[in-house]
Write the structure tokens for this entry.
Amino acid sequence: MTVVREPDACDAVADLAGRVAVITGSTRGIGLATARRLVRRGAWVVINSRTDDEGAALKDLDLGERTAFVAGDVSEVAGAQRLVDLTLERFGRVDVWVNNASPNVKVDFFDQQQPADWHQTIDGKMFTTINCIHAVLPAMQAQGEGCIVNIVSDAARVGTAGESMVSAAYGGVIALTKSLAREFARHRIRVNCVSITLTTGTPGYERIIADEVRAKIFAKIAAKMPFGVLDPDDTAQAVEYFVLAKRVTGQTLSVNSGLSFPG
């Protein structure tokens, strides 16, 4: 077991000194932006992707000394457990877990989908989150504290045409977030959710702009965003808030540039 180093005097911010955070799907986009923010706060951060190849480019990024990379496909139960086990082996604890990984699924209008598409979407979007939470909970229970942040699409909160199954799957994650927040408050484990819209520099955004029809639809939606299209750090800021907010749990925070409001 590795003992986590306390921050040096030169560390600029140390709110999360000695804390260990795991961010799934974090070699790019939102996950990487979140990793940067938590490292700046003094945390040790485990960055994850499906394969070692996806993590190879990290050596060229200036992430500092407080990062480690662990490959593992968290859409599989064994992959999620491996990520937890290797984190505990290296750092001895897991204080923060961010469910950011989101396997690609077919996005289409409901009447054009088949049962296989529904199962793929539910498995990819909802069970990836369930796998990870189920794997990390024992460690957080043993510590007597922990913070879990689930990142979902705002389609789950407001509904989006052409994303019915995504809305349904992530709607399940929002409901799960609320239930787990109540169930594990006795262990001082906080569970919250960040609900976002399309974000530049992510696979979902790249798929949208590559599709002529969807790109036109998105352009109309983007025009209704008073503060412009999101970038990865917008979501990272919201995750950072939940990590630092010690008495906030069971909440869903929409980060959608004013496109819609809770209701």
About this structure: The radius of gyration is 18 Å. The CA atoms of residues 52 and 71 lie 6 Å apart. The chain is about 45% helix and 15% strand. Residues 1-12 have pLDDT under 50 and may be disordered.
